[in-house]
Amino acid sequence: MKLVIAIVNHDDAAAVASGLTKAGFTATKLATTGGFLRQGNTTFLVGTEDEKVSAVIDIVKTYSSKRSQVIPDVGTYGLSEYANVPIEVSVGGATVFVVNVERFEKL
Description:
The protein has helices spanning 13-22, 53-63, and strands spanning 2-9, 28-33, 40-48, 66-71, 74-77, 80-83, 87-92, 94-100. The chain has a single domain (2-100), classed as Alpha-Beta Plaits. The chain has a 4-stranded antiparallel sheet with strand order 2-3-1-8. Strand 5 (74-77) and strand 6 form a beta hairpin. The longest helix has 11 residues, at 53-63. It is of the alpha+beta class. It is built from 2 helices and 8 strands; from the N terminus they run βαββαβββββ.
């Protein structure tokens, strides 16, 4: 038994949830916030058999797209702030962890 923890961009969460449901997987969704851009993410927890882990990861990969986003680069100089040239960063995609489950019980 494995636990797949998939952190996806909030914009992709509905598509990932739909894809997992259509494939017969159940997932717990948690609203989370990323540390870099402080924007919304969704973390999916999916418990599954070892041989189905690749299918879960494929679904997450299919529905989690990377894209570019322009953010303002605000620098500080002394006590005042000034605006610099905007910076383009890559967002989206997914971060996936797969961990062993030592024990599983449905109560």
